[in-house]
Task: inverse folding
């Protein structure tokens, strides 16, 4: 389990993470979602003990990362696939990591095999594609068979086959009871690979919950065609709904459920031609949730320049 | 669950040190410069010995002259030390390293142990070979020295110590600055530019400052004659070691407290 409590990180006057609170539980894949620059990577670096928080704390199973006695056995992380010396071979890179944590060298071959890069184990990393480098990073994260895993934008650079492989891999890790924390700026990716989602924007926690909860929280719209749109519209607006006339034939209703629209239509005697509830897509939810954060950011910049 | 110990980190850093090309290349350059330039200087002295000024003949030191290549090789070992840490920042692998070894002081200590051990072994072999080749070239024409004499043996071996200390000095500067080019500039400036700056100061200042320059300390360590304007060999070693320790301590402190 990863716990973030009142976490704040400032770089000079810039606030990267602002009083963040959340927990990442074992047994599920937790997505960490936010626009670029929202503080995801900073939070992950603090969890890994690489950056020190300005205030608050990040702990792994109750302890700060820097207090871990055998870190690779407790946490595996892929923060940046490029963070390796390109002149070294993949095997030597992993051997050095393994040896530092007292991990048997045969484990290196196991993880190379698992990540699907055993055939290039003795090649210098400089010749690796981004996808191969990602797989090397995943191999490194698995070296100590850790119960907690973090991945920062793991899908970047992977081909479709690699993306399917990594989603399956996250599921497997979670089913084994591990804590799996995956960041992404792509809602669509999280929709298929995560069970729980934590959304941040400008360093603030925006919301968290399951994907279903998130879509429900934003609410949907109802698409309506009827024999008399005008009368239906007046009746619905009187009942508190917001109605937008899409074109001559269709109106879009928000603020009430499809059942309510049907009941109102029956009550005023207007025949319905079409009644389609539409749930917000996750992409829309995400845009909706983070819009404030993004706009605020642009506005703040504008003021600074003025 | 095995835990991270200084010994395990030393083993990891040793793998990292020898599995990049720059290490082998750096030591090859150290070899070539110390021995090659030393031999060239020795041959030049031998060729001109008959016509040399008697005062120059009197001041001639067969030991430090045969080790003259160290003046060039010191940059190679400095760069080895600098790259050992700055390449981690340049590639970003420092984050992988520190995630695997969160007690950062262990990383600094392990790297220093690996660097000093490797460099002292290479450097001592290099200086002994350069010394022997130099005496071989001098033989018959120019006065020679033998390592059977204690001061000669001390000077030759301290030549190797000088190189190893400069490797550690480069590493310390790299720890502080983290950028390869900045670290190399500062390292070369301390060795080359500081003496030039001191040279334009008033004579009385020069006399008291010069002996503290790293390159002058190196000359003092390798000299069998102890020129009066320099420290004696052991005090010179102590002063240089103090510079290195202060630099390393500052670098280690910054490594522990800065964001990676």
Result:
């Amino acid at each position: 389990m990863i716990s973030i409590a009142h976490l704040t990180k400032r770089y000079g006057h810039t606030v990267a993470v602002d009083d963040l609170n959340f927990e990442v539980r074992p047994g599920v894949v937790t997505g960490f979602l936010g626009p670029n620059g929202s503080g995801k990577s900073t939070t992950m670096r603090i969890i890994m003990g690489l950056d020190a928080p300005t205030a608050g704390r990040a702990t792994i199973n109750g302890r700060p990362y820097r207090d871990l006695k055998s870190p690779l056995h407790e946490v595996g992380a892929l923060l940046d696939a490029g963070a390796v010396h390109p002149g070294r071979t993949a095997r030597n890179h992993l051997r050095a990591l393994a040896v530092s944590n007292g991990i048997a060298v045969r484990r290196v071959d196991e993880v190379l095999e698992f990540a699907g890069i055993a055939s290039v184990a003795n090649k210098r990393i400089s010749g690796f594609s981004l996808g191969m480098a990602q797989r090397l990073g995943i191999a490194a994260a698995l070296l100590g068979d850790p119960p907690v895993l973090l991945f920062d934008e793991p899908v970047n650079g992977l081909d479709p086959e690699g993306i399917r492989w990594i989603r399956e891999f996250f599921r497997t890790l979670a089913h084994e009871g591990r804590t799996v924390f995956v960041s992404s700026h792509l809602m669509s990716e999280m929709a298929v690979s995560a069970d729980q989602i934590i959304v941040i924007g400008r360093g603030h926690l925006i919301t968290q919950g399951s994907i279903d909860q998130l879509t429900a929280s934003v609410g949907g719209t109802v698409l309506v065609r009827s024999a008399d749109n005008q009368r239906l519209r007046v009746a619905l607006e009187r009942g508190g709904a917001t109605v937008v006339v899409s074109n001559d034939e269709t109106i879009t209703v928000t603020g009430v459920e499809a059942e309510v629209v049907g009941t109102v239509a029956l009550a005023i005697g207007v025949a319905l031609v079409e009644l389609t509830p539409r749930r917000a897509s996750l992409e829309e939810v995400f845009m909706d949730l983070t819009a404030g954060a993004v706009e605020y950011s642009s506005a703040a910049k504008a003021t600074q320049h003025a | 669950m095995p835990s991270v110990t200084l010994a395990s980190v030393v083993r990891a850093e040793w793998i990292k040190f020898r599995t990049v090309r720059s290490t082998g290349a750096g030591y090859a350059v150290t070899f070539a410069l110390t021995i090659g330039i030393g031999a060239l200087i020795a041959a030049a002295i031998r060729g001109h010995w008959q016509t040399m000024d008697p005062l120059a003949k009197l001041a001639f030191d067969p030991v430090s002259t045969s080790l003259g290549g160290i003046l060039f090789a010191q940059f190679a070992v400095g760069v080895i030390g600098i790259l050992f840490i700055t390449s981690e920042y340049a590639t970003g692998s420092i984050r992988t390293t520190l995630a695997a070894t969160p007690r950062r002081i262990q990383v600094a200590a392990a790297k220093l142990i690996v660097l000093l051990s490797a460099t002292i072994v290479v450097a001592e072999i290099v200086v002994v070979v350069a010394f022997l080749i130099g005496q071989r070239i001098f033989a018959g024409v120019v006065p020679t020295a033998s390592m059977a004499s204690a001061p000669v043996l001390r000077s030759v071996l301290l030549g190797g110590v000088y190189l190893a200390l400069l490797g550690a000095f480069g590493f310390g500067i790299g720890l502080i600055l983290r950028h390869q080019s900045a670290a190399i500039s500062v390292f070369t400036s301390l060795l080359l530019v500081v003496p030039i700056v001191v040279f334009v100061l008033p004579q009385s200042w020069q006399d008291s400052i010069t002996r503290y320059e790293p390159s002058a300390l190196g000359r003092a360590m390798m000299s069998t004659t102890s020129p009066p304007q320099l420290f004696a060999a052991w005090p010179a070693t102590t002063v240089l070691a103090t510079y290195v320790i202060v630099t390393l301590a500052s670098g280690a402190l910054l490594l522990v407290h800065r964001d990676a």
The CA atoms of residues 22 and 80 of chain B lie 7 Å apart. Chain B has a mean pLDDT of 95. The interface with chain A takes residues 1-5, 8-9, 11-13, 15-16, 19-22, 87-88, 91-96, 98-103, 257, 259-260 of chain B (CB under 8 Å). Residues 6-257 of chain B form one domain.
